[in-house]
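The instructor's notes for this session suggest beginning with a concrete chain rather than abstract definitions. Hand out the sequence below and ask the class to guess, before any prediction is shown, which regions might be ordered.
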Amino acid sequence: MAQKESTLYRALRDRLTSVSLMRVETRVALGMPDCLAALPCGRWVTLELKVVASGRKIRLSPHQIAFHIRHAHMPSWIVVQYWPPGTARSPDSILLLYRAAQAQSLTETGVDTPAVLRERWRDVDWPAMAELLAAAPTD
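After discussion, reveal the predicted structure:
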């Protein structure tokens, strides 16, 4: 079972073929999301990646929460790969997509927070997800 954000990054990079994903590794800007995504429409968005391999809690640091709340007016997303109990294969995991403004709620209610997108990994329409990432936060 994949349990690392780096594995989630590679899976997204391979499936979101119209999107150019770049990992961001920084210790200077605490809370900075894991990825920058260049979308075909010319827009840049940020993606925070989380993997929930046990339990239902999504762990965001106070810095990550602050970043997302501060940038809730921009296209900034939290992408979660959730492995429900008993899930052993990636196609059976769940992909959840949350807006930045939901960061605080995610720490309180975890994967039970209503997601903008909630699909079984094997059923995700990747081109539609790329379009969704381009949507303005007020859409």
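Then share the key points. The radius of gyration is 14 Å. The chain has one domain: 5-134.
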